[in-house]
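Quick one: co-fold with 2-acetamido-2-deoxy-beta-D-glucopyranose.
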Amino acid sequence: MAVLRLRALVLAVCLVCFYAPASSASSGDFPRCLSASIPSELIFTQRSPSFASVLASSIRNPRLSTPGTVRPLCIVTPTNASHAQAAVLCGRRHGIRIRVRNGGHDYEGLSYRSVQPEAFAVVDLANLRSVRVNRAKATAWVDSGATVGELYHAVAKASGERLAFPAGLCPTIGVGGHFTGGGFGLLQRKYGIAVGHVIDAVLVDAHGSLLDKKAMGRDSFGIVLSWRVRLVPVPPKVTAFIVPVSVDDGAVDVLTTWQEVGPALLDDLFIRVIVQNGVATFQSQYLGTCDALLAVMRGRFPELRMNRSYCREMSWAETTPMDTSNKATSDYVRQPIGRGVWAEIFNWLARPNPGLMILGPYGGAISAVPEAATPFPHRGGVLYNIQWIRDLYAFMAPYVSKNPREAYFNYRDLDLGRNVVVGNVSSYEAGKVWGEKYFKGNYKRLALAKGKIDPDDYFRNEQSIPPLVPRS
Ligand SMILES: Cc1cc2nc3c(=O)[nH]c(=O)nc-3n(C[C@H](O)[C@H](O)[C@H](O)COP(=O)(O)OP(=O)(O)OC[C@H]3O[C@@H](n4cnc5c(N)ncnc54)[C@H](O)[C@@H]3O)c2cc1C
Ligand SMILES: *[C@@H]1O[C@H](CO)[C@@H](O)[C@H](O)[C@H]1NC(C)=O
Ligand SMILES: *[C@@H]1O[C@H](CO)[C@@H](O)[C@H](O)[C@H]1NC(C)=O
Ligand SMILES: *[C@@H]1O[C@H](CO)[C@@H](O)[C@H](O)[C@H]1NC(C)=O
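Sure, here it is.
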């Protein structure tokens, strides 16, 4: 989808570098330039008394704010589009790159820190978070700085709890970062991922212009300020259950079975698994009543021994899931993993300092979209996604997808690789090492688009799409 592509490039927007062309003006003039168009109470320099608290406001992971972390020169918190435009214009003029922050959930903190020393500014969209729902059209405009929880709540309220939006499980995730990288959650099997439901967007491009999706075209990029999304219908009551199964009660067998059942169930039923401390916990949401769910479970997944006492009927908006904030990485599984391997994994996760594994079933609407239709390539043939702690990464290699070993872009992991600057642009060849894991065959297409729009690679971060310019 255009907007996801847009993001891949937006991402690219961020990192300045030692190689940035020297600007004619000194970077000391950057704050002065900002002050000319942005009210001073919306600009926080390192000397502002509230700089530290504004910076910390949406940092999820203390690992990413230890002393020595490369911090921004300043943080701009726009209250309207013109402030974001001014930040881009001043940044270009004074050779300062910009990183955009919404919910701050990036696993590597790239929205507010740099991995190597550089001068950069953060545009934090936290003040731009309104949600405007059009119930009759089943659409909404949501500003990037809103959280998905705020979006869900506003949609439920405006629609008498009959409309919803298919995106992530954690209510504090920011709309801006989340939509652009894909965005999956409880409704993914029924309706696919967030980016598939984006119908328009408003953004500030690299020249500081304000564009909508029509004007920006398919391959443009910038700071997305606002998104128009298509909402989806949900029944008045959905049913949730949580069934923990310990190793002693047969977790290994039930999990082995789930691998093939979970992705093949009817689309109304989502069952994910969290493996931790010798227990596999099956968490589910079903778009219907407990009675109907029990019939499905008896027929399709009797091994779980789910019964009525586990059912919790509620409105969709009441389903509130969990929050994790460790460094994690991701994998995709295309062939069921054998029982013996699962037994080993359980042993592994039962060690002191235990890890955690979250398995999310694919199939349904998420698999019905062709791989090349959006940059998000993990489609048909994927059984499930795994999110986990790194210890198991090497051990799992034989059992997960290969060539490339696929990974989810929104679970960003710099251990998969970083850009290498050759001459003065990120190298397309070197970027393949991480780019093909996140985007598979779409990586090249994205790089060609980047080569057209930003051949100088002015907008860059540690994992941004490098420009590929075909030799004529
Ligand atoms: C606790 C937790 C739970 C999660 N649960 C899920 C889940 O259920 N499903 C799922 O799919 N993912 C999940 N994720 C991953 C999440 O989708 C990504 O981390 C996402 O990028 C977060 O968006 P953000 O706005 O909060 O992050 P930020 O850190 O603010 O931004 C992330 C990236 O997007 C860029 N960006 C942000 N806003 C914009 C914008 N307006 N325009 C252009 N670029 C922008 C930033 O520069 C940065 O590179 C989870 C992450 C955490 C920490
Ligand atoms: C944005 O805010 C500034 C004040 O900083 C104001 O002058 C300007 O008119 C506003 N622009 C829009 C489009 O609302
Ligand atoms: C449901 O299953 C649990 C655990 O197996 C059991 O303790 C309980 O008695 C069962 N309840 C019903 C109503 O069957
Ligand atoms: C850097 O990029 C510019 C174009 O922006 C180009 O003219 C110049 O030759 C490049 N320099 C090097 C060292 O590659």
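If it helps, The chain is about 25% helix and 20% strand.
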